[in-house]
Amino acid sequence: MSAPVSWDAVSHDGAARTGTLHTPHGSVATPAFMPVGTRGTVRLVGAEDLESLGVQMVLANTYHLMLRPGAETVAELGELHGMMGWAGPILTDSGGFQVFSLSPKVDEDGVAFRSSYDGSQVHLTPEDAVRVQETLGADVAMALDVLVGLPAPTEVVRRAMERTLRWAERALAAKQRGDQALFGIVQGGTDPELRTISARETAALGFPGFGIGGLAVGETPAERNLAIEAVAAQLPAAAPRYVMGLGDTEGLLDAIARGCDLFDCVIPTRLARHGKALHPAGDFSIKRAEWATSTEPIDPDCPCPACGRYTRGYLRHLFATHELLGLRLLSLHNLVYTMHLMADARTAIAAGDFAEFHLRTVARRRLTPTQP
Ligand SMILES: [Zn+2]
Asked: Of residues 13, 139, 264, 299, which has the active-site annotation?
């Protein structure tokens, strides 16, 4: 049987590349951003919205779904696609990122932690993470990895990276489902040497795609870029590279420039719920007093439902009065902003113009200082 998920390059511009990710639920033009549907919903945004906003693929969190409503219940509801009413591609994370934020007990077998829902003890092994994700039924599942908080001593990062490799082998051995791809995850902190080893060894295991984990956790952009370069140099050219948890404009463009294809992050929707509008001339808070009587949209060039109909003055009023519509409209806007950033990046790469596009986009955002 052919691989359930594959990636073809379409065009190259320096290290940046466009391509097509093929999945059992359709194709994704890359570079692509996946909004995060933490509990099987991109907060305040329905599947019909995602379709109309041009979203190609979404991410759902295994940690949350295995605890509520439970993987078996998701399966009974038609797996993730059926439950969410979303016919397009879905990726599930392994649950590791959330689990490691709960200070779990980690040993060679797996991780033990207390559920943040009811305090019950939960144990998760690399094999469990595969089984749960196969039950959830996404197109792409991720191997369980070991995360360390940065900064950390090199020896600690190395041990976590090496255990991640052993867990990756166990995950591959546990895999049963033929219509779901399993991606390995490269670790190694911000140490280019550890990143190189991790990428080379993870690639040698033969995964059809690769997550680059443990970044976007507080390291500097320069550290992150070096780590990504070290990883990209070792991964097979014909496999998709997914930087996990990266979603700010500058970070996305830096990673695309270094040959990365897939991204997910809560940033666009989380910032929206805090009143922050993403904008090509610099992000800003919609709550600022100066918008009180503004009849301008957030961005006159933005095709989103918020900018097509509503003023900054109205949106500010909705936030000031805690009306849920404000949170929703800004979420839609920030998602469309990010979708368009990706589409513009793809166009620029195809035109051989990415470096110039990258500089121009970042320079324009610096015209207006980012304010709280
Ligand atoms: Zn908009």
From this structure: 264
The helix or strand, by DSSP H or E, that contains position 211, with its residue range, turns out to be strand 210-212
Q: Which amino acid is at 5?
A: V
* DSSP sequence for 224-288: HHHHHHHHHTTS-TTS-EEETT--SHHHHHHHHHTT--EEEESHHHHHHHTTEEP-TT--EETT-
Range 332-371 burial, b when 16+ CB lie within 10 A, else e: bbbbbbbbbbbeebbebbeeeebeebbeebeeebeeeeee
Q: Is 13 noted as a catalytic residue in this protein? A: no
Q: Which two tokens stand for residue 309?
A: 């109909």
- The three-state secondary structure class of 186 is strand
CA distance 124 to 109: 9
**Which has the closest alpha carbon to 278: 191, 366, 358, 338?**
338
Give φ, ψ of 343 to 5 degrees.
-65, -40
Place of tokens 């496999």: 239
Please say whether the beta carbons of 6 and 22 come within 8 A. Answer: yes
Catalytic residue among 93, 145, 283, 299: 93
Per-residue pLDDT of the chain (372 residues; tens, 9 = 90+): 578 999 999 999 999 999 999 999 999 999 999 999 999 999 999 999 999 999 999 999 999 999 999 999 999 999 999 999 999 999 999 999 999 999 999 999 999 999 999 999 999 999 999 999 999 999 999 999 999 988 999 999 999 999 999 999 999 999 999 999 999 999 999 999 999 999 999 999 999 999 999 999 999 999 999 999 999 999 999 999 999 999 999 999 999 999 999 999 999 999 999 999 999 999 999 999 999 999 999 999 999 999 999 999 999 999 999 999 999 999 999 999 999 999 999 999 999 999 999 999 999 998 765 454
Question: Is residue 93 annotated as part of the catalytic site, yes or no?
Answer: yes
- The residue type at 195: R
Task: Report how far ligand 1's centroid is from the alpha carbon of 109 (Å).
Answer: 47
